[in-house]
Amino acid sequence: MERVFVLAFVLLLATVSADNPVRTPIRQGNKKVHVRRFAKIPNNASGRPSKLQSLTFRGDSLYVCTGTSGGLIYKVSMRGEVSLFFDVNRAMREAKGREMDFTSAHGGLRSVAFHPNFNRNGFLYTSLMERRKESPSKFRYFSRTSKLIRADSVLLEWKYSFKDKKVLSSSYREVLRVGMPVYDHPIKQLAFKGPFLYISHGDGSVQSAIAGGGQKDDALGKILRINPVRKGAQPYTVPRSNPFRNSAKYKNELWAVGFRNPHNICFSKRGELFVTDAGRDNVEEINIVKSGGNYGWSLREGPFVHKASGGLVNGVGPLPRDDAKYGYIYPNVIVGHEGNRGAGFVGQALAGSCPVENGSPLSGTFLYANFPSDGTLYYSLLSDMRRARTTGPPNSLTQAPTYKAKIYFDHDDNERTRPLVLNNLRDVIRREPGLGGAERADVRFGRGPGGEIYFTSKASGGVYLITSTKN
Description:
Elements: E1 5-6, E2 27-40, E3 54-58, E4 61-65, E5 72-76, E6 82-87, H1 88-96, E7 109-114, H2 118-121, E8 123-131, E9 151-161, E10 166-178, E11 187-193, E12 196-201, E13 222-226, E14 254-257, E15 262-267, E16 273-277, E17 283-289, E18 300-301, E19 304-306, E20 316-317, E21 333-336, E22 350-356, E23 365-370, E24 377-381, H3 382-387, E25 398-399, E26 403-410, E27 420-422, H4 425-429, E28 443-447, E29 453-457, E30 462-466
């Protein structure tokens, strides 16, 4: 059993070839990660690969959202057969004359979640960026800013007709709307736990900036929890067990605060919420999030004091000795950015998966990758993550070790031939026809019905199965 070790709160010396605020090295892991192609989502209207934003499952099928490539949801069978499930943008146009906003890479369709009682009520929910043509005064905002952009984060409810075998455009219902200070770090993924819907929302800041922050009484940089089903005149209700239900500081809907860009959320079998949060200039983090927790942004970045001036290494400092009095919760896993000291943006960010807990060869791990560039694949042991000490005096904080994974790619879908041994997920994606020069991996992870892990790529429009997570 690997031992969780204490993070040294020191900066790298200038004598090394590349600076990194995190001293703890990444280890080479001994887990074998086998990968194969699973499905190909159709190209977008311009003939380019669809930009796949998220993946979830219901029953024995996967559902893939195309993000800025038209706002479509595709259904993928366990045999890899692909069919269009729902044209969300078209349904918005038919129902209300509205459309998604695709003017930013952070726009379009973000995520879909099916109600636990979907087989009875037919409800599904989408998070997306909607173009706002009308005056903001015509809408009910959960939180807004003084300088609204021309697009809003929106949570919509839809109803699937089992008789007609389609989602009804007329069922469009707005559940929640959030105003944004800038067009970056908007609404993200959705996930149900029981009847309650968890909504991750970015802090509304651009790279290397802190426009929104995560400490204000709004949706920015927060995890929200609601019951999204309408009750009378109420578009949703707030669970009585929400931690800020009677708080004077935060809105009832908030479940945890202090995030920058919580890209990915996923539950373990124990009910723990794993959140992968993209950092600014210095630290990527993965948190096992607790109800009512404050995760520090923008006053903290990872287990460091965050300086508003930013910059690699220069933008963070050690925690004060009396830091425990502030009550922040620190990450279970961290990965430091690497580059030239003082750099404002080095293009590193983590995409996280889900806990693997199905008795497969990779059971007991959590996979994550550097998604903007080469897709370097990492993992940590769930046991180490759960033992990490995330509160208390600075010298008592610990994180789980990060291991770099070696990838074995079944390039011809033939178990008899030897797999290709590759360094990263971008090398997998580059083997798609016509993608030899792909600069970015742009991967996102999702879990299948058997607890297995898939990843998608915006660069290739492909869906890939990590076969060593399949039982």
